[in-house]
Amino acid sequence: MKHGDFTGLAEDYSLYRPDYSQAVLRGILGITAKPVTKLDVVDVGAVPVYGHEC
Amino acid sequence: MLANAGVHSVTAIEPNDDMREQGMAHRDNRGIVWKKGSGEETGLANGSADLLSMASSFHWVDFDKAIAEFDRVLRPGGCFVALWNPRFIEVNPLLVEIEAHLETLKGSEIKRVSSGRSEFTETLTERLESCGRFSEVVYLESKHFIPTSPDRYIGAWRSVNDLRFSWVAKVFWRSWPTLKTASRVRDY
User: Fold this and answer.
1) pLDDT tens profile B38-69
2) What is the ipTM of this complex?
3) Model pLDDT for residues B136-175, shown as the tens digit of each residue
4) By the CB < 8 Å criterion, does A3 face chain B?
5) Does residue A5 sit at the B interface (CB-CB below 8 Å)?
6) Which residues of B touch A22 (CB under 8 A)?
7) E-only strand ranges, chain A
8) Is B26 on the interface with A (CB under 8 A)?
9) Strands (E) located in chain B
10) Please, are residues A32 and B139 in contact by the beta-carbon 8 Å criterion?
11) Closest CA to B140 of B87, B58, B83
């Protein structure tokens, strides 16, 4: 494994990393220019936000 | 989390094959489209996103290249979000003890790039404001509490890249049985 290489860490990352703040998520969605249901969202380096249990 | 919020679509860009495959196989995948790409080169079309986030990962990319890429991909009025989830170490003596232990091993041998409480994030608002690509920069912060078992806590440390690849990290990991026992004692 090299510095910055996340190979082999995915399972632990997905299972054990803490969830992000729901209040911050609501804040983010509250300042977007469109209604939530019309948002096309992209996450880069995606496991923390979209693959994690919440 | 955002996929569950009812947005129109979610595309996940992940450069690491292992991480991407794990995400694709996850039971909460909920229609997320996974693609290989990076912060500097997402592979997405011009003006194809309203909200683009990097969660606990923006400190890994080339700032100027990634910001230029996000400017290209975001539609007018779109938002870029850089997000971290730092621990509030000072409130828990065990966390303070573990961090101190890590510091004794660290020296010049463990190069830590993360995390959300670092020089990178301390100056990020100013860097985003001065880069000329954003009309306004908003800073949000919230404290939240996550009950964490010893196993989950140690599992989270196992997912930290810079504590997995150096020989000093092996010393660090040999300490875990002691720390785990200590955490269990304090858990009761």
Assistant:
1) 999 999 999 999 999 998 889 889 999 999 99
2) 0.75
3) 999 999 988 888 888 878 777 777 765 655 545 555 556 5
4) yes
5) yes
6) 1, 144
7) 40-44
8) yes
9) 9-13, 33-35, 49-55, 74-83
10) no
11) B83
The letter for the amino acid at B2 is L
C-alpha atoms less than 13 angstroms from C-alpha of A22 in its C-beta half-sphere: 6
CA angle (B75, B79, B85) in 5-degree steps? 150
b/e code B49-86 from CB counts within 10 Å (16+ = b): bbbbbbbbbbbbbebeebbebbbebbeeebbbbbbbbe
Question: Residues of A with CB below 8 A from B148's CB?
Answer: 18
Are B43 and B16 in contact by the 8 Å Cβ rule? The answer is no
Q: Do B8 and A39 touch (CB under 8 A)?
A: yes
Residue B174 structure tokens: 């040999």
Beta-bridge mates of residue B49: B74
- Taking the model in full, what pTM does it have? 0.75
Torsion angle of alpha carbons B92, B96, B101, B104, nearest 10°? 170
Please answer whether residues B51 and A41 qualify as being in contact, where contact means their C-beta atoms are separated by less than 8 angstroms: yes
Residue B87: how many CB atoms within 10 A of its CB? 17
Residues in chain A: 54
Counting every residue, how long is chain B? 188
Determine whether the interchain pair A42/B10 forms a contact, defined as Cβ–Cβ distance below 8 Å.
Answer: yes
